[in-house]
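Materials and Methods. Structural model of Addiction module antidote protein. The 110-residue sequence of Addiction module antidote protein from Gallionella capsiferriformans was retrieved and submitted for structure prediction as follows.
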Amino acid sequence: MSKKISAAVSHHEREIAELRADRELAVEYMKAAMESLDNPDDRAAGLLALRTVAEAYGGLGAVAAEAGISRETLYRTLSAKGNPTLKTLLAVLKAVGMKLSVESEHPATA
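The predicted structure was written out as C-alpha cells:
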C-alpha cells in the first residue's frame, strides 16, 4: 500500500508569498529588519530579511540587475556575513519599490 505524500511548502517560500501578496506587511517587515541592522549581534537577521524581500519582489537576479550590481554580489551582500554599502542598500531598496527614511530615536515630549 503506497501513500502519496503531498509537497510541503517551506516556511521561507510561504514567507515570500505573504510578503509579495501584502505590500504593507513587506514594509513593516523591512522596518523591523532595518532596526536590526543597527545592532551588530542582530545584523545578519536584517540582511537576510532584506534578501527575503528581494526574493519576493522580483527575485535576486532581477533585483541585482535593477540595482546595477551582479547577482553574486547581491547574494554575498545579503548574506548573514554581508556588509552592504549605503549605495548598495539604497539601490536594493529602490529596486523593490522602497526607500530609506529617518525618524527620531526619541520622540519629542510635549
